[in-house]
Amino acid sequence: MSDATDEIDETGETAAMDDPATGEPMVEFDGVNKYFGSAHVLKDVDLAVDAEEVVVVVGPSGSGKSTLLRCANRLEEIQSGQVRIAGEPITAPGVDVNRLRQRVGMVFQHFNLFPHKTALANVTLAPVRVRGLREDEARRRGEELLTEVGLGDQLDSYPAELSGGQKQRVAIARALAMDPDVMLFDEVTSALDPELVGEVLEVMRGLAREGMTMLVVTHEMGFAREVGDRVVLMSEGRIVETGPPREFFDAPETERAQQFLSRVL
Amino acid sequence: MGETYTDEPGGEGATGEGWVTDERVRWAGLAVSLLFTALILGFIALILYEYVNYDLLVSVVPRFAVAFVRVLAVVVISSVLAVTLGVFVGLGRVSRTSLTHSIATAYVQFFRGTPLLFQLFIIYLGVPSLWEAGQFPINQNWTVVQDVLWIDWSFITAVIALTLNHAAYVGEAVKGGINAVPEGQMEAARSLGMSYVDSMQEIILPQAWRNALAAIGNDQVILVKDTSLLTVIAFPEILTVFREINSNQFDAWTPIVLVAVTYLAITLPLMHLVQYLENRAEWGRGDEDEEGGPGSWLSWGGDR
Ligand SMILES: Nc1ncnc2c1ncn2[C@@H]1O[C@H](COP(=O)(O)OP(=O)(O)OP(=O)(O)O)[C@@H](O)[C@H]1O
Ligand SMILES: [Mg+2]
Hints:
The complex is a heterodimer. Chain A is of the alpha/beta class. Helices cover 38% and strands 23% of the residues of chain A. In chain A, the strands form 2 sheets. In chain A, strands 6-7-8-3-9-10 form a 6-stranded mixed beta sheet, with helices on both faces. In chain B, 67% of the residues lie in helices and 2% in strands. Chain B is built from 9 helices and 2 strands; from the N terminus they run ααααββααααα. Chain B has helices at residues 22-51, 54-93, 98-113, 116-126, 153-179, 183-191, 196-226, 238-249, 253-280; strands at 142-145, 149-151. In chain B, strands 1-2 form a two-stranded antiparallel ribbon. Chains A and B meet through helix 4, strand 6, helix 5 and helix 7 of A and helix 6 and helix 7 of B.
């Protein structure tokens, strides 16, 4: 934890800009309730992520962090409330869910790369199939993105030939290739060997610096403190505390947050 | 573990049954397989020297060649159709639309739950009897290759029955293949904005196909052998030729040799084709789960 705090000053100027073109938050949960059968997994969740803001979601296992993220691109349906992407309600009748999902990139804990496609083909598939990009344009953009995440020399490798850290960087490039407005990260370093965590966090840090709107679920408290503009603590399906990282980590208000921090720090 | 580790449960404590070592099992296996090979080769040599009439053999080769061509034609057409239809049956079996799912399930249950011989009769006898006597329109033969390949009602029946029957088995293999693809694959594809159909086509089916290949290949080998049933609908297949020669010439071993050669001439290349397709779908994992060295087709079989 201590080396992460040392780095705060270098990147501390990553401030949120609350001024998107629409004036609307990029992602907005409004009184969201989600049930799995009789299990009430999200309880009246309100959360707004502004454009270019990095919101980090922390909380114990089973508190509903993944479910929250999956509701933001309708991988899960909600039972009441509303989720809006740049002001547009995503559960309204007649919403084209495929068009909506193009604006929301998602990176998974277990990469979920397509094993039968090379790194480059993983990245170019959706832009060609969904956005109708020409093959050569998609290829150029894919090469550019893979180079950006440090994989310019692995374009033709299959996922089985890559390390976990490399796979996760391909997965990030794949999501970025759709030019999303917001990126969702669900414990993207949890499945990695410790020595590979850094390279993935570095890519995310770069994205945050470039002004990407990000909603990040992580157990990396150093990353939350350093890169997050806001930290959100979930517990049993509720948001129990939210605030800037400094306040959240150094002076948590609720007893629940104090308990949580005493366990993870 | 001590230096005398022998892979047994109980490890260093188990002294009583220590004579079953990996090394000895390997030698025993080798000895048994060599003995088996010697017996088989000896038997084949005996048959070829003592029981095969080579004048007869040469004279009946053309009849087997004709049966080979006809069976091959039925197999190729039925197999391509069965695999194609089977993919759709498999998609129906994993469909969340309950009507689609029920129809696919009923289809599979009927064609797997009744004998192929019965299905042949339904089509060969049942369908023409829907017309007034003598009115069934498919009554002539279309000649494709004079005296070798012609298409008549028995040929059409064979293709329809083998296709429908084996599409059910292929469908189950495809269903298993789809279910073995991790859930995250569909989620990743959908999260990129791809439609269900695009995701199936681009992401799920190629992986399901790879998962199902061994089972599908296995079924196509069975399809080849199922053509032996076509003798009951007057289709001159391989065993029909065998029975004619056997009863006319009072010779069993000469046609037996030709029957074996004719079937293997279809099934061995088919097994190699499946192996080739499996190897091609390794996607960078070439070194893992690789099929064993030379002659690996000897180990190819229904147990995988
Ligand atoms: N598909 C599902 N069906 C039924 N229950 C589910 C499903 N997915 C999640 N749950 C339940 O919902 C609750 C929240 O799960 P979720 O995965 O969102 O937690 P999480 O905060 O991401 O936990 P973790 O840190 O372990 O990933 C848990 O109690 C979980 O058992
Ligand atoms: Mg989770």
